[in-house]
């Protein structure tokens, strides 16, 4: 495994690469700053996103977890920049309970890149598993100027 960290206004983010794919993004600074073309590209894309110069990511990702976890991550990845969906909407698409979708969102191993911050509760904002909690979720949504969001 290789790691690289990036400073952003959303906090320090550490990317982990394994076997040619990004497998995690964590909310801390790592003293370990490995060299790799993929980490170079991932760090550049994160920096461009944070600078409002990029709206999506084009990186090889590998979500470790159950097929259900991968399905929820795929559904979150399909939410466009600046838009939100509810746990209930994703649950309806997948034919599962909204609570299960919420748990899978909380277990997202690659937040920001897989945009779990774009998933809302039926009544609006809910928690966020990233450092800073819901305040970080709000900051990400404001950064994206999320459509129709009153925050």
From TrEMBL:
Residues 67-145 form the Methylated-DNA-[protein]-cysteine S-methyltransferase DNA binding domain. GO terms for biological process: DNA repair; methylation. This is methylated-DNA--[protein]-cysteine S-methyltransferase. Residues 2-62 form the Methylguanine DNA methyltransferase ribonuclease-like domain. InterPro entries: MethylDNA_cys_MeTrfase_AS, MethylDNA_cys_MeTrfase_DNA-bd, MethylDNA_cys_MeTrfase_DNAb, MethylG_MeTrfase_N, MGMT_N_sf, WH-like_DNA-bd_sf. Keywords: DNA damage, DNA repair, Methyltransferase, Transferase. It comes from Sulfitobacter sediminilitoris. It is an enzyme of class 2 (transferase). Belongs to the MGMT family. The lineage of its organism: Bacteria, Pseudomonadati, Pseudomonadota, Alphaproteobacteria, Rhodobacterales. One of its GO terms (molecular function) is methylated-DNA-[protein]-cysteine S-methyltransferase activity. Its EC number is 2.1.1.63. It catalyses: a 4-O-methyl-thymidine in DNA + L-cysteinyl-[protein] = a thymidine in DNA + S-methyl-L-cysteinyl-[protein]; a 6-O-methyl-2'-deoxyguanosine in DNA + L-cysteinyl-[protein] = S-methyl-L-cysteinyl-[protein] + a 2'-deoxyguanosine in DNA. The keyword Plastid does not apply. The keyword Heme does not apply.
